[in-house]
Amino acid sequence: MNLESPKVTVEKSSEYLFNALSDVKNFEKLMPENIAKFEVLGDDIFNFGLKGMPEIKLRLKEGVPHSKVNLAAASDKLPFTLTANLDAVAENTTSVQLVFDGEFNPMMAMMIKGPITKFIETLAENMGKL
């Protein structure tokens, strides 16, 4: 299952956004209002929970300086990646798109497609808060 957020334009440099997204503490600023839990577990891993959904651990996997930040689920139960693609439009303007990619059975995919789509759209919309 591959889901993409709409592209959003953020009045920050791609270098700034790359550095901000590479620090897992900053993801708390991006979370939707219905967040039930957010906990930093280490330099590269955090745990979050939204009301009505199971808690998820995300680990910072890799990054391509100033263009991509890749996070992956820390559990094999729900294997997926969340990638932030950063595209410098101008010196202090960056286009950001989030891509969610996971392997789920058809029933699970049907159940989580709506909530995950809304979640990544909210993360993208909140990029300006960094």
Query: Approximately what portion of the residues adopt beta-strand conformation?
Result: 35-45%
CATH architecture descriptor text: 2-Layer Sandwich
Here the CATH topology equals Alpha-D-Glucose-1,6-Bisphosphate, Chain A, domain 4
* Average pLDDT for all residues: 95
- Strands, count: 8
Q: Count the DSSP helices.
A: 3
CATH superfamily: START domain
Order of helices and strands: EEHHEEEEEEH
Instruction: Tell me, briefly, the overall form.
Output: globular
Low-confidence stretches: none
Give the domain tally. Answer: 1
Give the class from helix and strand content and strand pairing: alpha+beta
* Gyration radius from CA atoms, angstroms: 14 Å
User: Helical amount among residues, as a percent range?
Assistant: 10-25%
Question: Which CATH class applies here?
Answer: Alpha Beta
Instruction: Indicate the multimeric state.
Output: single chain
